[in-house]
Design brief:
69% helix, 0% strand, 140 residues
């Protein structure tokens, strides 16, 4: 990328930061999103996840463009660093997705005591007998 292109992208980022310029953002998105996705896929990230993360990085650009300082780095360096950090965060989250075997919500419910079942069965059968013996109303 030549100096003029770097300056052009830096100016677009400043425009996004100061004016919330959607046209400038669209130009940045069209240029950087496919490159970010390709970068992430070269880091062994599946295509769908890479696309999602590239979009997330572009959202960061929209929301935090005011934090970009053209004097410190080029916009591409800033965006690719964000993408790299987000990829590392995603890998850490993926690695830490183990189930806690002691989690009470994963434990099976304790079985009821057999005496409770027999009381319930007896109560429901006696209720059914009482209902059977009830006089029926004669209204038709």
């Amino acid at each position: 990328m030549d100096v003029d292109a770097k300056q052009h992208f830096a100016n677009l980022a400043v425009s996004v930061a100061e004016k919330r310029d959607q046209t400038a953002f669209a130009a940045l998105f069209d240029f950087f999103a496919p490159r970010l996705k390709s970068f992430l896929m070269r880091q062994n990230m599946p295509a769908m996840e890479a696309e999602e993360l590239a979009q997330e990085v572009m959202v960061v650009l929209w929301q935090k463009a005011h934090l970009y300082d053209p004097a410190k780095s080029s916009l591409s360096t800033w965006l690719f660093r964000i993408a790299r950090n987000r990829r590392i965060d995603a890998a850490r989250r993926q690695r830490n997705r183990t189930l806690d075997e002691t989690d009470p919500s994963l434990m099976p419910a304790a079985p009821q005591h057999p005496m409770r079942w027999s009381k319930t069965a007896t109560a429901s059968s006696s209720c059914a007998l009482r209902w059977k013996n009830c006089p029926r109303s004669r209204s038709r």
